Every structure is written in structure tokens, then in C-alpha cells.
Amino acid sequence: MDDLPRAILFDLDDTILDTTLSATRVWRETAKAFESEIGQPAEVFDPILDASRIWYWSDPKRNHEGRLDVQKSRIEVTHHGLLELGIDNYDLATRFADYYSDHRVTSMRPFPGAIETLEHFVASGVPMALITNGDAQGQRDKVAHFDLTQYFQAVLIEGELGFGKPDPRVFQQALRACDAPAEDSWCVGDNLAWEVAAPQSMGMQGIWNDWEGKTLPEDSEIIPDRVITRIAELV
Questions:
Q1: SUPFAM superfamilies annotated for this entry (predicted)?
Q2: Is CATH 3.40.640.10 the right assignment for the domain spanning 7-18+109-234?
């Protein structure tokens, strides 16, 4: 791309890392590992877990609480799924969630070309900040596992700051770290409200990472400045 911004603010999950895709794989593997205890094949429990995750994360209050205590959210998702099978066993739900957590970060992968894209912008002299919502330890573990700190002027995590997207303060802090004005900066992420509408309201360009290829809903009131399916398209 010829016209480089003064700074780029990147989201982490489902933008740099294949968080949702890898989560689906690990839930399925965990269901397989616990088949004998649950008394149902993974093929039966897996779709129940899918529905349980949708139930949990679709509620704004649970979503906020779960982001800041992911282990508790995993236990509740599992327990809710077990109840659908008539199994009220919180200890089993806890051990299931523990197994999932033990395999979670190592199952993740950067999207194709993601690391090379970060390297490109570093080499081009474009300062970047990473802004991610979620619990402090879980998000910091992802950053450390993939050695991402080296690419960014700042790594801003909701659970460490006490606030996160779409709060303007997190974007302001990122821009200060990059020493860049909002009007010459991009924000890139998969959440239309958090990484497009919020930064646009501050004067930034909001770039939507439509990693699922869903395309923009016809009735969307949020219009990205650009739509991509992988951040490698920014190069």
C-alpha cells in the first residue's frame, strides 16, 4: 500500500490470531477426551457446547464478566452444556474447563501472513499498538507465546488497564504511545462496534477484518473505511 498511516492499532483475537477457529477445535478435542465421563460421544456434546457458548457470550453482562475471568466463563459454559444432558456436576465441568484451558493457547495460530504483515510495518517505520479486551493473564499469555511485544509500541489489555474497547481512553493511550494523531491512523479488527465505529468517532480510519467472509450486513449502521479478510491484505 502506497499511503502508509502514521500509526496502526491492531486487535488481537480473530485479527492476528485464529482465536475462534482454534477454540472450536479445542472444545471438540476436550469433548472427545471426556466422552467416558460424560457418557456421550463428542459428536453429541460438541453441538450442545456450541449452543452453550452462544448462550453465554450473547448476554452483555456475562460477556463483560467472562472476558475478565475466562476460566469461570469456561466452567459456566461447560456446566450449562452438561445440564442440557441432565448432568448437574460442577466438578466435572471444572475439570473439563481445566483441560480445555491447558490446551488453549498452544492450539492457536496466527492467521496466514499475519506475522509477516507486522514485520512489514515495523520495517516500514509505522508504529503500532495492540489493543485487546479480555483478562490480564489470558491475553498476556497469548502475547508472550507468540512473542508479539516486539512489534508494538504498546500492548494494552483490558484486564490490566481496568477499561478496554470501545472506551476512548484505550485508543487515546495507544495513539500517545505511537506519537500519532487519530486522523492519520488506522484501527484494524473484527468487531464492528469496537474497532470500526469507536475509532471512527475519534477520527481514525476503521478497518473491518471480516475473517469469516460474512460481508457487511445490509442494515449495518456501521460502515468501515475498508473491509479485509486477512490483515495481510493491508500490505
A1: HAD-like (SSF56784)
A2: no
